[in-house]
Backbone:
């Protein structure tokens, strides 16, 4: 079975019950499952969320282009930035870009930045969903806005910062308010080929 069929079968099974924001449950208490971990498989362009030995979710991603590779290795997620602003990096590709505030339609950072190697590498939402499944970023991991929101909620729950669904709804509806969250329990992420 190819990866897209495997993914479709898992997604149908996971979301058949619905509930929560865009089909994701919000956690008001930490989940009771085994140790949580994210694994980004760059060869398949899939982000896997593990609870213990089981994959609980999987999402399409885009990783870095050859000129701007995504770092490989094991990292810990300690911080999330909801409704992030964007400051162009000091890099040739961003020479003519301008800073954009949270919620600005021209802001390439959508919904949340989930830092795995600070300060420059994170998982973030993108409007360029056509890049998912390819190497199209400048080193970060890109996801669809809906999917990155689900991952952000999951990371917060497993990182010791669970919140009620209405907390996330307020963030979604006040896109101009930037909110930084520090995890009390860093969540591991492994990035591999």
Residues:
């Amino acid at each position: 079975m190819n990866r897209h069929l495997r993914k479709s079968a898992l997604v149908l099974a996971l979301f058949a019950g619905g509930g929560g924001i865009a089909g994701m449950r919000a956690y008001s208490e930490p989940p009771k499952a085994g140790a949580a971990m994210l694994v980004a498989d760059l060869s398949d362009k899939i982000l896997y969320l593990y609870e213990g030995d089981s994959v609980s979710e999987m999402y399409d991603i885009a990783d870095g282009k050859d000129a701007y590779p995504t770092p490989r290795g094991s990292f810990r997620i300690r911080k999330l930035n909801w409704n992030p602003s964007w400051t162009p990096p000091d890099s040739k590709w961003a020479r003519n870009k301008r800073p954009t505030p949270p919620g600005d339609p021209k802001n390439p950072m959508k919904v949340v930045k989930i830092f795995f190697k600070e300060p420059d590498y994170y998982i973030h939402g993108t409007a360029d969903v056509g890049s998912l499944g390819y190497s199209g970023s400048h080193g970060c991991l890109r996801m669809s806005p809906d999917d990155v929101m689900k991952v952000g909620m999951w990371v917060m729950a497993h990182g010791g910062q669970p919140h009620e669904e209405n907390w996330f709804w307020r963030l979604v509806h006040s896109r101009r308010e930037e909110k930084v969250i520090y995890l009390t329990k860093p969540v591991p992420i492994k990035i591999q080929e």
Q: What stands out?
A: Residues 3-192 form a domain with the L,D-transpeptidase catalytic domain-like fold (CATH 2.40.440.10).
